[in-house]
Amino acid sequence: MKLRTFFLFFFFVLTVFAGANVALGVLLGKADDARIQSERQKDKITSLSEDLVISSQFATRFARGYVATRDPRRLRWHNEVVGILEGAIARPEGYGVEYWDLVSGGLLPEPDSSVKGLSLENQFLQLNLTVEEFNLLKKAEELLLKLATSERIAMHAINGEFDDGTGAFSKRASPIRPWPTGCSTARITSSRTPTSPSSSTTSPRR
Known about the structure:
two-stranded antiparallel sheet; disordered C terminus
């Protein structure tokens, strides 16, 4: 009788340990899934932040290049950079720091403008961001879009094309030419007629 009781108790303990191991395995699996999800979100946030940096750098580079060369490809690339940011164009595969260098070098095709994507803001909303994190990223995006708008205005202005109030550059006027390379405020101010020292009056001391 005692032996039977011992075996029952022994198998009961084994069952408890087996159940505990199963429960522990489930908890560890959930913890690992949460870790993987957290790492994926971190990678996604990093990727979106990099998109902001890429958009800022290359939009400005293409705008300056267009003003200097009038190469229509640079105007088109500038619009495509902004289009990806706004979701009007789908984010290409392998979109990274080197992407636009490869496109401008003819090693990669331009993004397909017929395929729509998600705006950066909508991608932010899909993440489990805090209000503070979302506001910081949103503010950075707004500043970038304001800069891109100014760059677009400048690129059209050198062709005598101006905003007609609807966002279309159909208004025509005299082109605004960029300053020559090397022009400085010192040259601008030096073109003014200097004031003769003899013509200036000195207040008498009291």
